[in-house]
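User: My instructor asked us to take a sequence, write out its structure as tokens, and then describe one feature of it. I'm not sure where to start. Here is the sequence I was given:
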Amino acid sequence: GLNIGNLSMVNGDSITNSAGISSLSVSGTATLANSIVTSGAQSYSGAVTLGAATTLATTNSNVSFGSAATINGAQTLAITAGTGTITYGAAVGGTTALTSLASTSSTDIYLGANITTAGNQTYTGPVVLNNNITLISNSGSANGAVSFSSTVDSTSAAAKALTVTSGSGNIGFSGIVGGNYALAALSLNST
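Assistant: Let's start with the prediction itself. The structure tokens for your sequence are:
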């Protein structure tokens, strides 16, 4: 795998799996742009800034953002992990809202902190709340939709609350909410 301190990408850059780069671990800060494709896991420990529209993809391996890995930038972020999990350990869009966020995992998408976008949030796969979570998709005057394609549950350790605010954007659930582990509370705000 590739283990690096700080990573800085600009529009036009990409990292694609090649011999010896089955995984990527960034221990410091990262500025991401375009695409990072690995067969192995991707982990980010420090603050992440989106410098351009960004796609992260693995071949059935985890994508994780640690407890200090905030993600900011007025860009789109799409993550596809196959059967690998996706973990957001720190706030997403807390300083600068993302344009949109799409997360795809057939195993689990772990939400550990609040997520703010100026557009759609799409969760394709089971969602697990590791903390009380607020999802906001109407930063500025946007009215993004928030959609869940599968189940939404609290972590097994304790019941957690979910608040979703989307302006006039739709909020959609296609799976059972709290079926495995009940939520402490559910608040949906859409006009």
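For the description part of your assignment, you could build on this observation: The longest strand covers residues 48-58. Try explaining in your own words what that tells you about the chain.
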